[in-house]
Amino acid sequence: MTPDMQDAQIPSLFPALFAAQAARTPDAVAVRFDDAQLTYAQLDARANQLAHALRHAGIGPERIVAVALPRSIDMLVALLAVLKAGGAYLPLDLDYPAERLAYMVEDARPDIVLGHSRHLDALPDPERVWCLDA
What we know:
Number of helices: 5
Strand order of the largest sheet: 4-3-5-6
Largest sheet: 4 strands, parallel
Radius of gyration: 17 Å
Helix content: 40-55%
Structural class: alpha/beta
Distance between the termini: 50 Å
Order of helices and strands: HHEEHEHEHEE
């Protein structure tokens, strides 16, 4: 390692940057969607709760979680939680044809699929789905 590399700061990962922002401005609005909103503290708490459950289920480095949620606050919570757990996320667009979704799930082999109960019919392999609205 060269001396200039030793002095360079290693960039923080997104979950650490988000946690720092949540600590600085816990009561500021972090996200708004339609009529709902969450503060940084609320978003951080919800993402931490889901991240803990994901880690408990074995999600971490080199593990994939598919996220089959429409644009919503739940989608942001899910994406942040997967990153906090140390995993990678595979976004599944529910408007894709069923064959395309099935191919993506078969190819990526996610450990868990995060979704809503109202979309179970659109998803392949529904026994791996964690319904965030249940």
